[in-house]
Amino acid sequence: MDVLYQKGRATALEVQESLPDPPSYSAVRALLRILEDKGHVRHEQDGPRYVFTPKLHRDKARRSAIRHMMETFFEGSPEQAVAALLDVSSSKLSQDELDRLALLIENARGESKK
């Protein structure tokens, strides 16, 4: 999916060539077929080739994935999810990033008071 979001559209071969340590061409085709069956991608025929595109906008897919991750691993708790992310990356966050996170939290506090 990352390759399709980056390129906008790609053939199975282009997806394969964009992957580090890529699986076989048939494995990439099979995965794209599964993603299409699940409604994540669609294809158009361009001569003998299928050209795949993401079906969902990246932001919508991102929200859906995060929602699923929170339900699966964090009992639906945004607090637990954020705490785990901070635990994993706290030493890698710059002061600017920490300031932006603090601002997001402050904005969320303001929204919850309304």
Tell me what you see in this structure.
The chain is mainly α. It folds into two domains: 2-54, Winged helix-like DNA-binding domain superfamily/Winged helix DNA-binding domain (Arc Repressor Mutant, subunit A); 58-113, no CATH class. The protein is built from six helices and two strands. It has helices at residues 2-7, 12-18, 25-37, 58-73, 78-89, 95-113, and strands spanning 41-46, 49-54. The chain has a two-stranded antiparallel ribbon. Strand 1 and strand 2 (49-54) form a beta hairpin. Helix 2 packs across helix 3. The model has no long low-confidence stretch (mean pLDDT 91).
Number of helices: 6
Low-confidence stretches: none
In round numbers, the mean pLDDT is: 91
The chain-level structural class is mainly alpha
The figure for the number of domains is 2
Helical amount among residues, as a percent range? Answer: 55-70%
Which oligomerization state do the chains in this entry correspond to? single chain
Radius of gyration: 19 Å
How would you sum up the major sheet? 2 strands, antiparallel
Amount of beta strand: 5-15%
Q: Based on Cα principal axes, name the global outline.
A: elongated
Q: Biggest sheet: strands side by side, in what order?
A: 1-2
Sequence of secondary-structure elements: HHHEEHHH
Tell me the number of strands. 2
Alpha-carbon distance between the two ends: 38 Å
